[in-house]
UniProtKB/TrEMBL annotation:
Domain SAM-dependent MTase RsmB/NOP-type, residue spans: 170-453
Gene3D superfamilies: NusB-like, Vaccinia Virus protein VP39
InterPro entries the record matches: MeTrfase_RsmB-F_NOP2_cat, MeTrfase_RsmB-F_NOP2_dom, NusB-like_sf, NusB_RsmB_TIM44, RCMT, RsmB/NOL1/NOP2-like_CS, SAM-dependent_MTases_sf
Protein name: Methyltransferase domain-containing protein
UniProt binding sites for S-adenosyl-L-methionine: C266, A267, A268, P269, G270, G271, K272, D287, D328
Family membership: Belongs to the class I-like SAM-binding methyltransferase superfamily. RsmB/NOP family.
Pfam name, any one: Methyltr_RsmB-F
PROSITE patterns: NOL1_NOP2_SUN (PS01153), SAM_MT_RSMB_NOP (PS51686)
Superkingdom of the organism of origin: Bacteria
Length: 453
């Protein structure tokens, strides 16, 4: 974008070289564009990044920096917005174009990423100049960011509310479901960057040693360091795949046996399909998204595993009933906020209600596809009971031909705190204590195992 300077109230930066060549500015452009697009369109940060990053032509280091700025902005969005708004005496300026995302990205750098203040402020000011709408507020943006830098210690010391970075509707939902203390522990767990977990085909201890990891009680391997995944031993050879430790549990609960016919409904990108195929089951993976199924196919190919792949709406798809059915239903994904902090700001109560209605239809379809005596595991990566416990309560009340098959602690590495009074799995982000806060926690998942009588 050309640096079309408008007349400024107060010239703050003297550009000594063309803006396009200023080191670090392209990364900030992408970071602010990601924040803006995710918040406006409600799209997932990962997908938005994959779609937008190529047109910014960044080198690997700048691309990683842009991503880190965007993800930190979402992880700390409440604190950042409060800090900025408290210093905007007349509220956020109207029609100011990218003013807000540029300031949020700069605030993330100043408050949380350890970027030198002068670099964060200077680049943000240059960036504000680039758009005619935000260029009118360069002096304001500059003043606010300098105050954030000066007042950093006080801002961080004051941000003690555990729900500072949680939208109020979510905090309220968790308080109602789990009580004040657990809700606060969940919100606090989201402040930490998550570790990388992998599922191995075999020899967890051997892979843990090779990759500097820890074997978790459930059998997943947790890596101590965050490293670029494709460069790790065993990735190209297809010995393991990336999968959160809690996300690996529902497929285990299906207790698949070699040769059994299993339907994996809502299967892409295939983490659970891979587990079931690795157990020797004859898996049919169904998903309605062609692009996501292409990723599933590529993942299975790398892993040397196979499954029948079907592009279909699982609500209406018909087949001979299966020995077992896994339904990993689409959901609000609030259990994944630690890994995907954007989810907290893009999902709403309306999404939760809409998705709960879809889950009920999918559960009906999954029941039809389960043969008498067969198992049905229903799961979601949501912390909201509407998408888990309540969904299954309603289903069981309407289906006397199904009964719960309670999950036993030894099926989940002895972690009895992850099993509720009904014998369902309910993992929460602050569970699974590790050596450090960063090596602790997992995704919030709900899973129930039902038997068709
Ligand atoms: C939670 S993700 C599945 C993750 C996957 N099971 C795994 O372990 O990698 C939910 C999936 O449901 C798919 N989906 C949503 N609605 C669907 C429907 N009506 N029929 C089939 N698939 C659907 C989405 O395309 C998405 O891939």
């Amino acid at each position: 974008m050309a640096n079309q300077k408008q007349k400024q109230p107060e010239p703050v930066v003297v550009a000594v070289q063309p803006a396009e060549n200023v080191p670090g500015l392209p990364a900030r452009r992408l970071a602010a564009a990601l924040i803006d697009e995710v918040l406006r369109a409600g799209t997932a940060l990962d997908e938005t990044y994959e779609r937008m990053a190529p047109s910014f032509s960044l080198d690997a280091a700048d691309a990683a920096l842009a991503r880190a700025i965007a993800i930190t902005s979402f992880r700390k969005l409440g604190t950042i917005q409060n800090a900025i708004n408290d210093r905007l005496e007349r509220g956020s300026p109207r029609n100011s174009g990218p003013f807000e995302p540029i300031l949020a990205a700069a605030a993330a750098q100043i408050l949380f990423l350890g970027v030198p203040d002068h670099a964060a402020v200077d680049l943000a000011v240059r960036h504000l100049h680039e758009d005619a709408r935000s260029s009118r507020y360069v002096a304001l943006g500059n003043a606010i960011l300098r105050r954030l830098a000066r007042e950093r210690e006080a801002i961080l010391a004051e941000a003690v509310d555990p729900f500072e970075d949680t939208p109020p509707w979510l905090a309220e939902s968790w308080r109602t479901a789990y009580g004040e203390d657990v809700a606060a522990a969940i919100a606090k767990a989201h402040a930490e960057e998550p570790p990388l977990d992998i599922t191995v085909k075999s020899d967890a201890a051997g892979w843990a040693e090779k990759l500097d990891g820890i074997v978790l009680p459930t059998g997943s391997v947790r890596l101590r360091e965050r490293v670029p995944v494709p460069s790790l031993p065993g990735f190209t050879e297809g010995e393991w795949w990336v999968q959160d430790a809690a996300a690996a549990l529902p497929a285990l609960l299906l207790q698949a046996k070699p040769g059994e016919r299993i339907a994996d409904l809502c299967a892409a990108p295939g983490g659970k399909t891979a587990q079931l195929a690795a157990m020797g089951a004859d898996v049919t993976a169904v998903d309605r998204s062609g692009p996501r199924l292409r990723r599933l196919r590529a993942n299975l190919e790398r892993l040397g595993l196979s499954a029948e792949i079907v592009t279909a709406d699982a609500v209406t798809w018909q087949a001979e009933p299966f020995d077992a059915v896994l339904l990993d239903a689409p959901c609000s994904a609030t259990g994944t906020i630690r890994r995907h902090p954007d989810v907290a700001w893009t999902k709403s109560e309306e999404d939760r209600e809409r998705l709960a209605a879809l889950q009920a239809r999918l559960l009906e379809a999954a029941a039809r596809l389960t043969k008498p005596g067969g198992r049905l595991v229903y799961c979601t990566c949501s912390l909201e009971p509407e998408e888990g416990e309540r969904q299954v309560e309603t289903f069981l009340a309407e289906h006397p031909d199904f009964a719960r098959s309670p999950i036993r602690p030894e099926e989940v590495g002895g972690l009895s705190e992850a099993i509720d009074a009904n014998g369902d799995l309910r993992t929460l982000p602050h569970q699974l204590k590790g050596e450090t806060p960063r090596l602790s926690g997992w995704t919030g998942f709900y899973a129930t195992r039902l038997i068709r009588l």
